[in-house]
Amino acid sequence: MSTIIRIFRYTSRYKWRAMGMFLLAVACTGLVLVLPGVTKEFMDVVIPSGQHDRIVPLAALAIGAIVLRQGLFTARSLFNNAFEQRVLHDLRRQLYDKIQRLPMKWFDNQPTGDVMTRLAIDVPAMERVIIEGIDQGLSGLLQFTIVFAYLCSQHVGLALLSVAPLPIVALATMVYQRYAEPRYKASSEASSALNSLLHDNIAGIRQIKTYTIEPQELERFDDRSRRVTRTHMSVVKANAAIWPFVSLVAESGIVLTIAFGAYWIINGETTLGVMSAVLMSWGLLYDPISRVNPLTQMFTAGIVAGKRVFSILDLTDEPNLVEGARPELLKGHVVFDDVGFSYAAKAPVLSGISLEAGPGQTIALVGPTGAGKSTLLNLLTRLYEADSGRILLDGNDVKTLSKEWLRDNIAYVTQESFLFNASIRENLLMARPSATDEDLWEVLRAANAETFVKNMEGGLSYVTGERGSKLSGGERQRLSIARALLKNPPLLLLDEATSAVDNQTEQLIQGALTRLRANRTCFVIAHRLTTVKDADCICVLKRGKIIECGRHDELIARDGLYAKLCAAGFKEKEEA
Fold first, then answer.
1. 418-488: which CATH topology?
2. What is the pTM of this model?
3. Per-domain boundaries in the chain
4. pLDDT of 229-272, one tens digit each?
């Protein structure tokens, strides 16, 4: 019940629309009584007394009521759908906004397909509870009340016989609710797991084809699809077990009504007209009850969906996303003071990290794969929070700063040059929405991307495809660098920013990066000597710790790990 109440709170913004839905339902319900009333009048008055002159007016009244009711029903349908879409938009928007404000650790443990299922399937299921609850539930209750009151005004005994099966129907519905909810939950989770697998496989279709594992992936898909089938059939079996019984009990009411009605007519305790009106109203009385089956299924599915959506909405937001200090000036003095970090409960990824970058300095981070270089940059942007130690920015602990402000002052070119499925212009404008096309061409030129963009059909309007799939790795990386150039921030983070370009292109990009790094604090992760040898300080990481620090010539003279990396890899790439 608490979940249902919480779902219905989403109508508070549109209380007048909800009231309008209810009033239209009242009007439609009131008109259904015209036909039984006209039928009674024909049976008890017009036919026995031969009143020919009343036949046409009464028939016109009945037809007019039917036409008006259908017109109101059309208006009600349009009104309801407009209301439905507004509420659905609000639900989707709130959930999406919440997802964007969750910490990165949550995304590390949450399958993308499951998140998509909650947005695309669970939110509409929640919304149906609201719309059907008002339109079908409340209007059905209203119709039942009005029709039952009308029956009581005609004959109390016949009215009570008509509703005699209802206690059994109510009990069966309660039993179904408890029995079916875990089945709906299992079905929803199975669908979510299938969507997660489907999302991963479509995103990784190149790997599937490259490793020729189509049969294995088909087997995995088949297994999850069968689970969806099994859980869905368990829901179907639950429905098949209860609702025929409910219908049997409900329909027995009309048999009792006919039998006792015939007895009372024979004894002169009622009339054929009253009996006809009651029988005609019986369908109107049980029309809301006939909705119990689909409404209960819809409510059960909606409650399960609501719990899944609320489980996200109730999560704690990423701290200091908007709140926190926003210094007017950022010089770019960065200090890592004995910083430690680990993902979940695993072994530490970083431990005892201490380093300092003065304003305008370039710090290069080198070391074997898995040494913690990218994690270090993620802590500076506060995509993750350090477990121990402090990170200071111009003397301020970054945990006291607004993350929004912090990230606005950082340009981060990652290893994976991610582009959205939008135009080149839209991808670049993420860095500075107010930029002109002239500004865009300028940064493209600096990133050595101008030529290939001009050769694209539509130029800046060319759509890059999902994750930039219509571009080469080098082209994606150059566009990412252009985006960073456009942002023009005080802090610059480059995570192997030139790894996907050839040596000739790299030389051109290095010139752009040199200009970009001027008067800015820059952290560079690279596996190429040309990228790191001119850095103010090179920090060598191994197994989460800094084991060497110094300039290129100093580290070469020490003949430590950096010298070995240069001899084994850097030198080869330099000569190539």
1. Rossmann fold (3.40.50)
2. 0.72
3. 2-313, 418-488
4. 888 888 787 777 776 777 777 777 777 778 888 888 888 888 88
